[in-house]
Amino acid sequence: MTARQKTDVLVVGSGFGGAIAAYHLAAGGAKVVVLERGPWLSGEEFDHDFKFGSSTTRVFDFVVGDGMSILGGNCVGGGSVVYFATMPRAPRFVFERRGSIGRRMWPGSITRDALEPWYDRVAEALPITPTGWDEVPYIGGVFAAACRAAGHTVNPSPSAVDTSLCTNCNWMMSGCRFDAKRSLLLNYLPAALSHGAEIRPLHEVQKITRTDDGSYQVHYSTIDEVDYRQHTGGGVIEAKIVVLAAGAGATPVILQRSEADLGPMPHAVGRYFSGNGERLNTAVLEDEKVRELLGLSRDEQKAYKGYQIGRGPVVASWDRLDGDLPEYERFSLEQLYFPPGFGTILAQIPDADGPSWFGPRKKEMLRKWQSWLTVFTMSEDDNEGVFGPPPPTGNSARLSQQLLGFGALSYRPTANTLRGWEVSDAAVKQILEHDGLARVMPWTNDVIGAYTVHPLASCRIGDDPHSSALDDRHELRGHPGIFVTDGSAVPGALTVNPAFTIAALAERAMPGIVRAARARGVNVVYGAPSPEGATSSRKATAAAAAAMVGG
């Protein structure tokens, strides 16, 4: 029997876009239900292990597309559970980007100055704090010293990590068992629960239909807790407002599958996908050169060999985040720890004269894995990703019980995107091969295509109805009452880690969603403090919020 229920607001996904919406709407008096496809884990359940069934396989979703693969969160808390908690604000020039459409991509109402107070609200809620040089672990210090020696500036990154609780175990991608990483499990989500919101894990939304009175019905399947390919049941929930926050790799798929029932979707649904211009390079360090660079070592036998120690990313070079540079030549570089697995497969052999990512020389390279240093590039791409027809259920055709599936995303990098990768690869090489410190090669695209951990822009906001699926209030064009607040709403690559910007945009969208909910008969108000009760950041957003909420 199919279960049927009613609520005021149905939120799909519990990452930044979903958690922020759930909190504000529940705190304002609305009845809120959150459906999350993945499991609900807490600190003690986050494992330091790669075995099947550990948190590492349970909380990730890795979807291989045609030319682009996406690694994202699949759990209550979404990407905040598996992110590295590096939280820079997007550079000012990002909001003026023209990109592939040849005109300003962002809505005219959103600039860096306009978004600044919404950034402040998120910073207060998590909170986000600067990182001091005395808190940078050894691996970050090595990258910083290499940048300085090669003539580049470098800085510790702002972070949503409580360093007094962090043990530098470097397992934070599998969830933080010490609650040092300020994921949404520690702020917005418990605050939403305290105001009566319901969070239902292992619920995968399949499509949305419309009722005769203009409300929506959200159709879901329940998922087996071990084998995510198995559906154990299903149901329908009717809601006056639907907030989609399933991620840039899933939100457009849900909307595409809903088109037969809801009617035509905006042209931009499932188009203009951006991988945030991401690129990874692995350097194999010469330990003696590290000793010379730093004038010290971990001990007499180990000048470096600290790849897995610490946390990452903690240090970044932002020299190329210069608005005066040409578009597609602007990027950031971060020291990154990427756990064994993908790195051991995709890292290429420096100066290979034969196979670049497998064979005897790759085996020798793997023996030196503790002397690796991985650099993460975020640049500007051309929003060239397009989603094909959706699979029958979910956002991919699942290959394994957990983690892995094949999706309908097609991505063919343009000359502009390739130029951005080429320029950034050269910068990494110049820094880490300076004075013989290391040998560097980018990860190969031959196995799974390009790859991103920060998918964006597949249902983006904008002023042009042809090139944006959402208006500047995040409402889906032609479908009043459906809003999108996750990374798919971001218009394009940000050149930095996007979580802070996604969260700030979600905060900014809340007054307008409250206004729409009230117009549709929901008794809800806007004006909740941050999840911990702080109110100082509300002053800067009060006028904008009042204008969006209206009478």
TrEMBL record:
Named cofactor requirement(s): FAD
Transmembrane segments: none
Keyword hit for Ribonucleoprotein: no
Domain Glucose-methanol-choline oxidoreductase C-terminal: 452-506
InterPro entries with a match to the protein in the record: Cholesterol_Oxidase (IPR052542), FAD-dep_OxRdtase (IPR006076), FAD/NAD-bd_sf (IPR036188), GMC_OxRdtase_N (IPR000172), GMC_OxRtase_C (IPR007867)
Chain ranges of the Glucose-methanol-choline oxidoreductase N-terminal domain: 66-271
UniProt KW keywords: Cholesterol metabolism, FAD, Flavoprotein, Isomerase, Lipid metabolism, Oxidoreductase, Steroid metabolism, Sterol metabolism
Gene3D superfamilies (UniProt xref): FAD/NAD(P)-binding domain
Annotated FAD dependent oxidoreductase domain residues: 8-42
E.C. code: 1.1.3.6, 5.3.3.1
GO BP terms: cholesterol metabolic process
Pathway listed: Steroid metabolism; cholesterol degradation
One Gene Ontology MF term: flavin adenine dinucleotide binding
UniProt cross-references to Pfam families, sorted A to Z: DAO, GMC_oxred_C, GMC_oxred_N
PANTHER family the record matches: CHOLESTEROL OXIDASE, FAD-DEPENDENT OXIDOREDUCTASE 2 FAD BINDING DOMAIN-CONTAINING PROTEIN
Protein family membership: Belongs to the GMC oxidoreductase family.
The protein's name: Cholesterol oxidase
Organism, scientific name: Actinospica durhamensis
